[in-house]
Structures are given as structure tokens and as C-alpha cells.
Amino acid sequence: MKIGIFYRTDYFKAAEVVYSALKDEFEISFFKDSSENFQPESNVSVVLSVGGDGTVLRTLKKVQCPVLGIKAGRLGFFSGYLLNEIDKLVKDLKSWNFIEDKRWVLRIESEGLNYFAINDAVLLKNVEQKIVDFLVEMKDGTFYYHADGLVVSTPTGSSAYALALGGPIMLPNVEAFEITPIAPQFLATRSLVIPSSEKIRISANEPVNLVLDGDILFRTNEIFVKKCTRNIVLLRPKTYDFSTSIKEKIGYGKLILGNGNQV
Amino acid sequence: MKIGIFYRTDYFKAAEVVYSALKDEFEISFFKDSSENFQPESNVSVVLSVGGDGTVLRTLKKVQCPVLGIKAGRLGFFSGYLLNEIDKLVKDLKSWNFIEDKRWVLRIESEGLNYFAINDAVLLKNVEQKIVDFLVEMKDGTFYYHADGLVVSTPTGSSAYALALGGPIMLPNVEAFEITPIAPQFLATRSLVIPSSEKIRISANEPVNLVLDGDILFRTNEIFVKKCTRNIVLLRPKTYDFSTSIKEKIGYGKLILGNGNQV
Fold first, then answer.
1. Most buried residue among B10, B38, B152, B247 by CB atoms closer than 10 A?
2. Short-list A123, A177, A126, A129, CA closest to A150
3. B191/B176 Cα distance (integer angstroms)
4. Model ipTM?
5. Quick one: residue A51, left, alpha or beta (phi over 0 = left, psi -120 to 50 = alpha)?
6. Domain range B105-229, its CATH number among 3.20.20.140, 2.60.40.10, 3.40.50.2300, 2.60.200.30
7. Radius of gyration (C-alpha) of chain B in whole angstroms
8. What CA–CA distance (Å, rounded) separates A5 from A69?
């Protein structure tokens, strides 16, 4: 089994710990800083990503194989193992003892180019721009937003930027997009939940920034969004479940009170 | 074609207008106050409901056939025609010129009894009760809420009570439940969006009121919710679409500014 390792620049020491633990047990295809312009070979079985969610996102965009996050960053919705669980990880890799957490992603077309996004596609005005008119069109109807920006997110992205904007928490296997406006006028602050079978066109009355999973691409006044035929796969320990993760990371749905209040 | 008519008590005069317009053209199976304890015969093709959304909800619970709302109430998410469109309605009935707006509903089991709900199932404490501990359990995980109540809604119900509690707007064909807490502690104010394939158990640390589509049933500390195998069908004019309806009723996604701001 060939294994690749990407790490975040400032987690090089942590990444070396991972590399050392794996190098005698597996064939290490590469060991690279994720910010480098490096395209891994395609016969890698799994790529480990040492860093936070940003590093995992960057890794998922470079490879087609499953990705396993080793948490060194702060939040870690995408991470599977902690740095002090390397022994367990080696054991689990040998027997492929994982949950394959498959997530669907967005396909975005803009300016004749195609992209995919795991969390979200954001249209956002510059600071010096005036408030923008957005038009959302699909088979199910048409909606207008007079706002600083719009976020189209997957269920995976519902715990990212959309959550910060007031959106709901969506379980990862919900087949729906979520559109959440950024600073909308006229109290239209709610998210719109749309079947993932829809094909959505979003246009703006003037060009705005297109930001995919946090990466600024270019300015445009039109994007098309639909569900991508491709999935991504995150490897998780067998003990993983989303509800525990959301409780630990943001406290949503957590039992906070002590005894005497149990259900 | 046999047609039934249910009306809200205080809309008797409006209902008489409807009855008069239809009686020479169709066989009227019944013409009844919706609050009466009356069970229609099963061979009716369509039941007209003269009143607001509450009257349509009550009508949908009494019959298995498609229901057509004639708006006399205030909001009217469920209504199809206005009282002054009776001529068009008669014409459309003759040629069955409608959109059959099929909506999926909830099946609720509690205290050994089964119910269905079109908008929502609400668990709510009495005014004199202390804040309640709710436990939501399903295959996808477990969530706790320390709150006055919990609302489980369909996409149809997302524009009803759940909206008033801060929930998102869901397009009617989204295959997801929405759980929204009422006055939750610890900032857990967001809605949780759950695949409609889930089977949900909700328990409380003490009995609370079970309210289905606004009707108070009884007090319980356990309900089971899943998608019902049964659908309901609302008849709409061919011009109907949900996005227009939500724009007109609550202004969400509406183009509010005048010229110069069009997209």
C-alpha cells in the first residue's frame, strides 16, 4: 500500500512524527508541504493530511483517493486521528479499519471553467463595493437577495461559513444545498434549503469575488452550481460519528448539565 | 365528479358563494362546517376547503383525496384560488387543469397511537413547567436540547412554526426533516436538518404537550417520528409555484427595490 503525506508548513515537526511512524511499515509515495505545487501520482491508496481542516481541504483537491486528517489545527471537522494516536493509526491502516466517510460536493461552473467545492461556493463583494443584487434561478423558482454576498454550501459546509451566518446544521447525508445570504437587506436572513438534484444559476448585477472553500478565484457575475458526480472520501476511526463531532466541536446538541437533568 | 366542500364557521357566506357556483355543474357530496364531526364518503374526487391554512389542514386530515383551498383567511400557503376566481375554478375543475402539489408528511407514534402531521409535530412544556431536557435519537446520532420545546417539521412546515423560531426555508421537495428547538439554553438555537429516511425518537425528562399541526393531543414523554408512506395532494392553479408563494406571503427572496437595481 502506497501512502502519501501532505502537511501544513508550520506543522512540519508533527508531520515528521507521522512520517517516522509509517516509513518502516508502508511505502511512502511522497512527504510534501501542502502549499507546494506538487501533483501526486495516482496509485496512492490514501493520503494523510497533517494540519487543520484547511490542510485536509487542500489535500482533497489534489488527490482522488481517500484522505485521512491528522489533527494539528484548531477545529478539525475533517480530521480522523490525533497526533498521539499514531500507533492506533498504523494498526488501522494495516487492516484498513476505517469508516469511509463519503461526502458529496458541489460542481461550480463560471467563466467557462469548472471547479468543485467541498464546503461552499461564496460570491462576495469587495469592501469598497456597494450592496449587490443577486438572482438565484432554478427549476423550483427564482429568488432575489440584496446582500453583501451569497453562500451555497453542501451539508458538509453547513458547519463552516454558513453556520457563522446563521444557517442550520445539516447532517452530512442530507441531499440538499443550502443558500445563505451574507448581510441581506429586508430581513431575508434565513437560509434556503434546496434539493441536491437542482441546477442553480446565480447572477449578480456586477462582478463579485468567487471564493471556493476559502480560495479566492476571480471576479464574476455568474456561476452555475449543481451536485458533482464525484464524491470525496474521508477516512475516520470506527468510533467516529458526526453527531459526536458536532457536539465536541461547537457544543450543538451536547448534554451540558450534570446529574439530575439526564433524560 | 363528486365534490365536497368544507368551510370555516365564520366563512359560511363565502362558502355559500362557492356552493352556488358549483351546484349546477357538479354533484356536491357534502357542504359542511369543518369543525363538525363529519366523515365524508370515500368516493369524492376533490374537497374544496373555504378558509385559511388551518381549514385546509383540518380538511386534509378528514379526507384521502386531493384538497383545493379557497382563500378566505389571512396567509394561505395551502390555498389555490381566491374567492373572486370561482369562474376560473369551475372551468379548471371541468378539465382538471391543476398542478397536483404532492407533499410528504410525518408519521408520529406516541403512547401506542399513530398520527400523521403535515406541517409539524411539536413537543411543548406548559407555562408552569420548568425547562425540559429533550433527547433526540436516530441512526445518525444523538442530540440533547435543554429547551421549552422541540419542533419536528416537514419542508411544508418550514414556513410555519419553525420559521417563526428562526429555522431555514426548505423547498417542498427537499427530502429532509427539520428539528428546531423552542427557547433552547446554551445558544443551541439552530435547526438541525435530517434526511427524511431517518427514524427519530424524541424523549423528554418529563411529560410535555404533543401538538400536531396546531392541535393539542395529550401529554407524553416519548414520540417516534418518521416519514409517512402516505402523501397529501393540494390542487393548485397551473400558474402556481412555491417560490412565488413564499415571496408573496413573507417577502423572502422578493425583488423589493425598483428599477436600476434589477439583476
1. B152
2. A123
3. 12
4. 0.87
5. left
6. 2.60.200.30
7. 20
8. 10
Residue type at B41 in one-letter notation: E
Beta bridge partners of B61: none
CATH classification (class only), B2-96: alpha beta
Query: Known binder of ligand: residue A8?
Result: no
Q: How far, in Å, CA of A76 to CA of A172, rounded?
A: 15
User: How far does the CA of residue A232 sit from the closest CA of chain B (Å)?
Assistant: 19
How far apart, in whole angstroms, are the C-alpha atoms of residue B210 and residue B201? 14
**Residue of A24, A53, A101, A241 marked active site:** A53
Question: Would you give the end-to-end CA distance of chain A in angstroms?
Answer: 47
Contact B169 A188 (CB under 8 A): no
- d(CA A88, CA A78) in angstroms, rounded, equals 18
Type of residue numbered A169: I
Task: Return the pLDDT at A257.
Answer: 65
Smallest Cα distance from B231 to chain A, Å: 18
Instruction: Compute the distance between CA of residue A161 and CA of residue A159 in angstroms, rounded to an integer.
Output: 7
Q: Are the beta carbons of B190 and A163 separated by less than 8 Å? A: yes
Nearest to A200 by CA among A133, A147, A121: A121
List the domain boundaries for chain A.
Answer: 2-96, 105-229
How far is residue B206's CA from residue B149's CA, in Å, rounded to a whole number?
12
Q: What is the per-residue burial (b if ≥16 Cβ within 10 Å, else e) of B89-116?
A: beebbeeeebeebebbbbbbebeeeebb
Q: Which residues of A fall within a CB distance of 8 Å from B169? A: 190-193
Out of B53, B92, B101, B213, pick the active-site residue.
B53
Greatest Cα-to-Cα distance within chain A, rounded to the nearest angstrom: 61
What digits encode the pLDDT tens for the residues B129-151? Answer: 999 999 999 999 999 999 999 99
Q: Are B2-96 and B105-229 the same fold in CATH?
A: no
A53 catalytically annotated: yes
Number of helices followed by number of strands (H, E) in chain A: 5, 16
